[in-house]
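[Discussion] Sanity-checking designs against the backbone

I'm trying to build intuition for which residues belong where. Below is a structure token string of 547 positions. I'd appreciate it if someone posts a full sequence so I can compare it with mine line by line.
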């Protein structure tokens, strides 16, 4: 527990003192309305696609991150925006897996990257594959292609950047076919039962198989799974049994093809790369995941920021005349929340926002579709009635509390922060008076206890923010699979490579299927024509009775 001297409450001021007057809000609403009426619709073909994925960045985390951003700048924060909050097109995506009401990152990754829903823990396969079913995953009819292959088939440059392991769930869903997201190295397969040994581990698929081996950029953590030298004190989670150095194999394959390549492990080496002259780049900046932003060594011997990795990646990918696809994952937002540590998670979110800003400054937004979304949410909540501008990590007190103890604005419905005791007469929760709740290691109270690092995902919809060609197609509540379809359609690749934007005509009632769905659900839907027929029939009956 983090105990200390009494912590002074911080309340950040609003930057708009005029907001108390009526005219401020009338003018604000009129500006928003003008922007909505003037919202551009870009129907061009997307040369490039960038997908920013905030792992675990649900609506609550997004709101808290927005407030934190403003407070770090000395403002109250609620009135501000994250850069993607101002994108002109926003929708919601349903995140459930085929077999789970609350999803995991593997099946959600498969959904938004391939356009096909899947079962939890599986990557790159359809719903006919259950978790750990190796034989089913080897059947070609059960394997799905993702936008990575679609883009490569169209001659585009491709790559991904993550702060997690390069073999972790979201990235594995991009390039691998596996019935288990955890089969990242051969050892995990050998530990599984039955026919698992007939499958190939995810790290090998990254280096040996298409489409992964054709990616120009691969950056993240995961030296252990790739079998390269690690720090002596690295936690042993997936050490290769075959003792293969897959990075060396990757280098040999590039040399055999006559391509220039660079493998880098720290910031200094990354900055020494000339992305204008290097064909293939692999950066592994952590034995397992990369360090949290709050813990990162920012020296040249340390690890680069997500922003810097994205900048180098774009310089390489933008060389391709046919365009590119880039996946960027803020992977450790999820981990901070799993450990019930909001400050670590939200600083990761803001690090991803800086990466988005950097990317927008480099690209031509008229020809690049940019999508920002999450794979799922978490069970963190913003609660109580804190004063406007109250420190987002701060305490709340109000007269509704029966125990008169302060609590934090950010709390969890389950997690490692569970801390209730029995005093002989009643259940008592932790007294946070004098506790530094802004500390990066602080864990707010949780209602249900879990093992350390095991706070769960949430099952509600996540937001999808988009701008660029065909971004207006994100317009309501969609299945999460719709993300892949929009990216493919916008850039005329994959299922939409032929005819593309001419392949769909606009019917008179583009929402006719909504009525059909309602009808199938047992809800009676009366069309205008049926109303006329019904009215005419009733009128005839009335006249007959009158006669």
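Best answer:
Here's mine. Compare freely.
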């Amino acid at each position: 527990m983090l105990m200390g001297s009494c912590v002074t409450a911080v309340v950040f001021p609003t930057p708009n003192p005029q907001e108390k007057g009526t005219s401020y809000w009338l003018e604000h609403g009129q500006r928003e309305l003008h922007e909505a009426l003037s919202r551009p619709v870009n129907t061009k073909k997307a040369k490039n696609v960038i997908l920013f994925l905030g792992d675990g960045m649900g609506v609550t985390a997004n709101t808290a991150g927005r407030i934190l951003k403003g407070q770090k700048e000395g403002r109250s924060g609620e009135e501000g925006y994250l850069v993607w909050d101002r994108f002109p097109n926003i929708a919601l995506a349903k995140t459930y897996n085929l077999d789970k009401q609350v999803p995991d990152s593997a099946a959600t990754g498969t959904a938004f990257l391939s356009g096909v829903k899947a079962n939890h823990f599986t990557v790159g396969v359809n719903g006919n594959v259950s978790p750990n079913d190796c034989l089913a995953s080897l059947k070609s009819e059960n394997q799905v292609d993702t936008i990575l292959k679609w883009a490569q088939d169209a001659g585009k440059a491709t790559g991904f950047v993550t702060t997690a392991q390069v073999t972790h769930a979201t990235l594995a869903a991009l390039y691998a076919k596996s019935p288990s997201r955890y089969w990242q190295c051969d050892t995990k397969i050998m530990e599984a039962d039955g026919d698992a040994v007939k499958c190939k581990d995810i790290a090998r698929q990254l280096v040996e198989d298409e489409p992964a081996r054709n990616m120009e950029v691969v950056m993240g953590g995961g030296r252990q799974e790739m079998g390269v030298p690690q720090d002596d004190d690295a936690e042993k989670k997936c050490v290769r049994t075959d003792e293969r150095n897959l990075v060396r194999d990757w280098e040999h394959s590039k040399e055999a093809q006559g391509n220039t390549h660079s493998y880098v492990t720290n910031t200094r080496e990354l900055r020494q790369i000339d992305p204008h002259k290097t064909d293939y780049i692999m950066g592994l900046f952590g034995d397992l995941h990369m360090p949290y932003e709050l813990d990162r060594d920012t020296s040249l011997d340390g690890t680069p920021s997500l922003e810097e990795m994205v900048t180098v990646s774009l310089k390489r990918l933008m060389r391709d005349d046919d365009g590119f696809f880039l996946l960027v994952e803020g992977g450790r937002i999820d981990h901070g929340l799993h450990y019930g540590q909001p400050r670590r998670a939200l600083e990761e979110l803001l690090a991803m926002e800086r990466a988005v800003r950097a990317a927008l400054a480099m690209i031509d937004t008229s020809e690049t579709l940019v999508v920002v979304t999450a794979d799922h949410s978490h069970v963190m909540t913003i609660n109580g009635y804190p004063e406007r501008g109250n420190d987002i990590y701060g305490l709340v007190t109000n007269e509704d509390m029966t125990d008169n103890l302060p609590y934090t604005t950010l709390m969890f419905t389950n997690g490692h922060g569970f801390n209730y005791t029995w005093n002989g007469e009643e259940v008592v929760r932790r007294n946070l008076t004098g506790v530094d709740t802004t500390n990066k290691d602080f864990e707010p109270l949780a209602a249900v206890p879990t093992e350390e690092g095991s706070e769960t995902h949430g099952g509600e919809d996540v937001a999808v923010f988009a701008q660029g060609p065909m971004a207006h197609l994100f317009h309501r509540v969609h299945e999460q699979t719709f993300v892949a379809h929009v990216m493919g359609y916008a850039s005329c690749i994959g299922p939409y490579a032929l005819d593309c934007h001419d392949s769909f005509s606009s019917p008179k009632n583009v929402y006719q299927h909504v009525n059909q769905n309602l009808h199938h659900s047992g809800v009676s839907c009366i069309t205008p024509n049926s109303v006329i027929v019904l009215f005419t029939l009733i009128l005839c009956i009335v006249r007959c009775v009158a006669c």
